[in-house]
Amino acid sequence: MKEIKDINILAIESSCDETAAAVVHNGREVRSNVISSQIDLHKLYGGVVPEIASRKHIEKINQVIEEALKEAQTTLDDIDAIGVTYGPGLVGALLVGVAEAKAIAFARNLPLIGVHHIEGHISANYIENPELEPPFLCLVVSGGHTHLVCVKDYGKYEILGRTRDDAAGEAYDKVARAIGLGYPGGPKIDRLAKEGNPEAVKFPKAHMEDSPFDFSFSGLKSAVLNHINGCRMKGESFDPADIAASFQKAVVDVLVENSMHAVEVYGMNRFALAGGVASNSALREGMKSACEKKGIQLYYPSPILCTDNAAMIGAAAYYEYLSGTRHGWDLNAVPNLKLGER
Ligand code: KG4
Ligand code: ZN
Asked: Which ranges of the chain does DSSP label H, i.e. alpha helix?
C-alpha cells in the first residue's frame, strides 16, 4: 500500500519554447527532468515563433515523456497524478501539453492537475531547499513575466507588483538583439556585462510613484536603443560590453530596490528568486548583498530549474494535489491565466 506521502507526479510543460517532462516524488525530489529546447530553431528568427513552437512540441512530446519515465526508472504504473501547465503562455504551445496530459490521465484513470506557469517557477525553489516553506516573498523574473509575489501559503498568492510593460527577460532579449548578440539575449548580456563598466552610461531607472512595487522596463529599453542609434548617427564607436553592463545595472538596481522595499513593508525574512532571469549573476549578487545586510535568507534555484522546465511544474502540482485540486476532462489552455485562478 502506498502511503499518502508517496506521490509520484508526471509533469508536462510546453508553454513556450521548451518541451519538458519530469517525474517528481513528493513535490521536492526530482527523479527526472527532461527538456527539449527549441532555442536553435527560434534563434534563426530572433525570437520565439508561436506556430513553429507548437509544431515542434507535438513532434517531441512523446519522446520527452518516454525519456522522463525511463530516466526516473519508472513507468506509468507508478505515477499517481499528471501535472501540466495550462497557462499563461502561447495558446498553441500550451494545447499540446494539455491535450497530452489529458490523454494520459484519461487512459490511466489518473488525477489531472492543471498548473499555473508562474506557480511552477515559484515552486522550483522548493526542490533544492527542503527547509523553504511559505510564507515568503518571491520575485518572478522571466521572458514573459516580472511579478513581485507574496507566497502566503502553498497555492495562495498575492501579487504585490508587476511590470506595466516589458518583462525583465524581454528587455534583456531586445537589448541583446540591438547590440547584435542574438536570441536568447539574457545569458549573453550576463556574460558580456562582466567585461564592461556598469557606470559607463547612466540609463534611467523607473520607479512608479503610485505603486512602489510595480516595474517598467520599456523606457530603459528605448533609452538603450536611442543611445546606440545616437552613437551610430554621430559616427561614434561604443563598447557593447559597457552598454550591456550599464543596462544590466539599471535592471538589477530596480529589481533589488523594489524587492527590499517589499521586504520592509511586509516584514518577511525569506526571499526567493524565480524564472529565467533568476539565473542572472548580477541579480543574484545584488540580491545576496542586499539580503545579507537585512538578515534575510535568500533562495534561488539552480539555473536549469530557473528557465522553463517540468520539474517545477511537478513541485507545484504536488501541493495542488495535496490541497485537493483536480481538473476535469474539460481542462483547456488559458493563455492569459491569472495567478491564483483555478
Ligand atoms: O523562465 P523562462 O525560461 O521563460 C519564460 O517563462 O518567459 O525565461 C526566459 C528568459 C529569457 O528572456 C532569457 O533571456 C532570460 O530568461 N534569461 C536570462 C538569463 N538566463 C535566461 N536573463 C538574464 N540573465 C541570464 N543569465
Ligand atoms: Zn517560464
From this structure: 39-43, 50-71, 91-108, 117-128, 168-178, 185-193, 218-233, 240-266, 281-294, 303-306, 311-322
